[in-house]
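Letters spell out the chain; backbone shape is given numerically. Both lines appear below:
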Amino acid sequence: MPRYFIGELIDSKVNRVLKLFLENKKKKFYLKTISVETNVPIASVFRIVKKLVKLNMISSVSKGKLKVYRFNKINLTKLIEPKIYKIFKLFSDNKNKLFYLKKISSETKVPIASASRIINKFLRLKIISIIQVDRIKLYKLKRK
């Protein structure tokens, strides 16, 4: 999965905190350290870390009066809306294949309106490209 993809889907502060944990999977962090290293206000870090612990993406261990936080192994598909994941997986499993909207919808069982919204997001993020033949739009995963 392209690295930028998840970053475009979530808030930049959450993205910075999550990125810190993903890039330092074995390291433990205090709230203040997270705040300094991500340049996110400590109040926001507290709120974000609380959510990440609740989602079981990071864990906390008490050290005296303070807590340290560390990364938990996670399934990245939990970070992405199932509809988005299904469509992305369709493209990534069929890298050279062209799809039209109705085919994407039928193969992923995602309603056409939702599929269209997701396809437009993928186009803006430059994850897929569009080829227009007459009045038919065909979509394909972009090569790096």
Q: What stands out?
A: The longest strand covers residues 58-63.
